[in-house]
Amino acid sequence: MDSVNNAIISVSSNGVVLEQQPDTGCVVNGQISVINSQYDAYQVQYSFSGCQGSAAYLNNTTATGLGVLDTTLNPAVAYIGVVNAGANYELTEDFTKTSSPGSSSSSGSSSSSGSSSSSSGSSSSSGSSSSSSSSSGGASSSSSSGSSSSSSSSSSSSSGGHNFSAGGPNVVSLIVGPGPTPSSSFFDIPTTTITVCVPSTSTCQTITNVLVDTRSYGLRLLASALNGLPLSAQADPATSGNHIAECLPFADGYTWGAVATADLTLGGEKASGLPINIIDDNGSFSPTVPASCSNTGGGNIGRLDDLGANGVLGVGLSSYDCAAYCTLPVSGQTSGYLYYSCNASTCTPTTEALGSQVINPVALFSTDNNGVILQLPAIAASGAATATGYLVFGIGTQSNNGLDGATVLTTNSEGFITTTFNGQTLNSSFLDSGSNGLYFPDSSIPTCTGSAAAADFYCPTSTLSLTATNQGQNGATSSVNFQIANLNQLSNANFALDDVGGPSTSITGVGSSYFDFGLPFFYGRTVFTAIAPNAVNGDLTSYYAY
User: Fold this and answer.
1) What's the rounded Cα separation, in Å, for the pair 270 and 24?
2) Cα separation of 96 and 106, whole Å?
3) Separation CA 63–CA 116 (nearest Å)
4) How far apart are CA 442 and CA 421, in angstroms?
5) Highest mean pLDDT among 47-51, 68-72, 77-81, 374-378
6) Whole-angstrom Cα distance, residue 254 to residue 538?
7) What pTM was computed for the model?
8) Reduced to 3 states, what is the DSSP secondary structure of residue 170?
C-alpha cells in the first residue's frame, strides 16, 4: 500500500510494477530488475501517465534509480532512491512489505528535492487497418472523433480459468484509463508500457500509453514519444541516400513516417532488430507526405490527440503489415502503396522486402511468438474510471497461456469470422481491441447528435440488450450478449465502458457488412488472437478464441 497516494502498488513475479493513484489519477508503470541477488540490490524504473490537476506535470516522465530489500527485518523493508529529470525531482522512500502478495506498504518516511512535492511521484511502483475511433474525455459523444468500431458486451462469458495475477515473463499490464493529456483522453483505449532501444545498446526509452491493437500489425510510435532516441531510418537498398517511409491507411485516416530499427522489450520478452514505424507528429521527418498517401481517405491521424496514445502496438493475426503484396514491383501494387523511398524532399512508392517490413513484434519473440491473449475484468454497466488487466504473449507455449476450453473460431484467408445479427449475415467481422466501441449496422438505433463525430455512436432512448452469434470457418459458434447505452448519458469520468457502439462505416475492400467487436467485447473475457502461420503469403487463416 502506498499510503502517501492512497493506492496499491502491485509487483509481479517478473518485476512488472503497477500503481493507480485515485487522488491524482496517475497510472504508474515500471520494472524492477535484479542487479545483485546476493545483496538484494535492484534497478528501479517507472513512468507516469494519466495524472490530473497539480500532478499533471508528471505525465510522460520517467523515474530511475536503485533499490535494496532488507530481509533481516520482519516484515522486510525496501528502500529506494530515484531521480526524475523530466519532473525535476529526486526522491528517497522506504516501503514495508505487507501480507498481500506482490504489494508493499509505504512507511511514510520519504524525502524529495527539486520542484515536486514529496507526495507527487513518491511511489516506487513503477489502430488497426479497420481501426479506431475515439471519444475524448470519458463518455461524451460531443467530443468524439474518428470512426472506429468496437463492441460493447455484457455477455455471460467470463475470463474462464485463466488467472494471470502471478505474472511471468510473458505477462504485462493492460490498462484502460485516461490518456497522456486531457485532450488525448478517450474512452476504451487499452494501453501498455514498452521499452525501445537503439539496437544492441543500452540507449533506451521507456514509453507509456501505447495502444494495444489486435487488428493491426507492427509497432508504430509517435516521434515525440521517443524523446530524441537516435534510431536510424531504414536505408533504401535500391537508391543510395534514400530512406524508407510508410503510409498506413486506417478506417478514419492515415499515419505517415520513417521506418527504423529498434530493440523492443515487453516484460520478459524481447524482439531484437525490429523494424518499426516512427509516426511523424513533430515535423522531424522532412519529406512531404505524397498525394498517394494523403488521398487514401480521411486525414492525418498521426497525432497524440487523434490516437489517444503514444503509439500503436499491432499484435493481430499477421506477422507482417503488408506481406507478399509489398514485395511486388510498384506496377503490380494496384490496390495502393504502403512503402515509399524518400530523399530529403520527395517520396515515391517502392517495394519492401519481407524482412524489412514493419513486423508484428510477437512474431520475433524467441518462444512466445504465436499469438497474444488479452484479459480485462468485467465492469459495471455504468462503466469504470479505469480498468486493469493483462496482455499475455504466446498461446500454449507456457503453463499459463493454454486455451483451457476456450471456443476457437477459425478465420477465413482475410482474417474474418461471420456474425449473424438482426437477420443479417456479416461475413467480414473481427475482434479488435483497437476500436473503442461496438460497430455494426442497425438503422433502427438512433445515432448521437450535436456534431458530425457524435454520429459515429448510437444514442438509443434507453439501453438496448442485444444478441449476435459468431461463427468460425470451422463451424464453431458462440453467442454474444451485449448492450448499447446512450453515450450522452454515461459519465465523462469513466474511461472503461462496455456498452457503447455505433454504426459500421465503409472500409475499403470490406464495405460496411461487418461487426467490429471492439474493446467493450473484451471486458470480462480472456480473448486469444493467433498469428496466421501462412501470413507471409498474405493468408490470414488463423483463429480467435474466447
Assistant:
1) 32
2) 6
3) 13
4) 9
5) 374-378
6) 21
7) 0.74
8) coil
Pairing of strands 190-197, 253-266: antiparallel
Element (H, E) at 306: helix 304-307
C-alpha to C-alpha distance for 497 and 309, rounded to whole angstroms: 18
Give the pLDDT band (50/70/90) at residue 55. Answer: confident
For the record, the C-alpha cell of 447 comes out as 445515432
The whole-angstrom separation of Cα 130 and Cα 414 is: 13
CA distance 466 to 42: 51
Q: What is the number of residues in the chain?
A: 546
Contacts 24+ apart (CB under 8 A), 330-334: none
Q: Cell numbers 495524472 label which residue?
A: 51
Using an 8 Å Cβ cutoff, are 432 and 440 in contact? no
Q: CB under 8 Å to 383, separation ≥6 — which residues?
A: 139, 187, 490, 491, 494, 495, 496, 497, 498, 499
| Sheet of strand 417-421: strand arrangement | 477-484, 464-471, 417-421, 424-431, 516-517, 438-439, 501-502
For residue 380, give every residue at least 6 positions away whose Cβ sits within 8 Å of its Cβ, in sequence order, or none: none
Cell of 419: 456474425
Q: What are phi and psi of 384, to 5 degrees?
A: -145, 150
Q: Residue 488 in 3-state DSSP?
A: helix
Alpha carbon 191 to its chain centroid, in Å, reads 4
State the pLDDT at residue 116: 37
